[in-house]
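Deliverable D2.4 — example input (structure tokens):
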């Protein structure tokens, strides 16, 4: 069985070009250490969100968070897809991330989801600096989350996030997920998404 320490080394991205080391180390774990996030840890993560870029400085991001063992944590878990519920309980900290859909003037904020993504990029890099793994999840029932957490009209829950210090025991995962956890990371080549001078298919 691959140890967690070896897994972290194996997950370091095999880059074609040199990039910032924390970006190379980042991956989305499904296992975590039992170490709890302190209030200071949480504040540092959200401070990185606070200073992320946003269109017209509107800062449309919103978060609901909870520590393992709390009612809020169980309610977030209950909003996750069946697949994500198979492993997300390993995380000591869960979040729902959403955004404000309109500007204060009542116009659609086309860039709100983009800004939420930027804020989560900041958080993910800050977390990596702190030895914390972040796993973003598309598998969340946002309609249920809106109902369970009384999300006001005009806001939209977009994603769920599992957070915890790197570590833990691979045996806490079902066998199929153990294989996924230790699988080699792959990415498409730059020339498949970055086009100089015009779009290329």
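Example output (designed residues):
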């Amino acid at each position: 069985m691959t140890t967690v320490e070896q897994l972290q080394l194996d997950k370091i991205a095999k880059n074609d070009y040199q990039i910032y080391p924390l970006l190379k180390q980042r991956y989305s774990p499904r296992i975590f250490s039992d170490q709890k996030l302190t209030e200071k840890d949480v504040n540092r993560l959200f401070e990185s969100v606070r200073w992320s870029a946003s269109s017209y400085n509107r800062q449309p991001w919103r978060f609901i968070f909870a520590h393992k063992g709390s009612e809020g944590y169980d309610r977030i878990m209950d909003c996750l897809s069946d697949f994500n519920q198979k492993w997300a309980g390993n995380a000591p900290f869960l979040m729902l991330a959403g955004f404000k859909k309109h500007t204060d003037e009542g116009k659609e904020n086309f860039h709100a989801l983009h800004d939420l993504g930027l804020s989560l990029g900041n958080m993910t890099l800050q977390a990596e600096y702190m030895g914390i793994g972040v796993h973003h999840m598309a598998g969340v029932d946002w309609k249920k989350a809106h109902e369970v957490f009384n999300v006001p009209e005009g806001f939209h829950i977009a994603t769920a996030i599992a957070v915890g210090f790197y570590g833990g025991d691979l045996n806490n995962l079902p066998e199929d997920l153990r294989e996924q956890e230790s699988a080699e990371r792959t990415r498409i080549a730059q020339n498949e998404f970055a086009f100089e001078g015009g779009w290329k298919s």
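The chain is about 35% helix and 15% strand.
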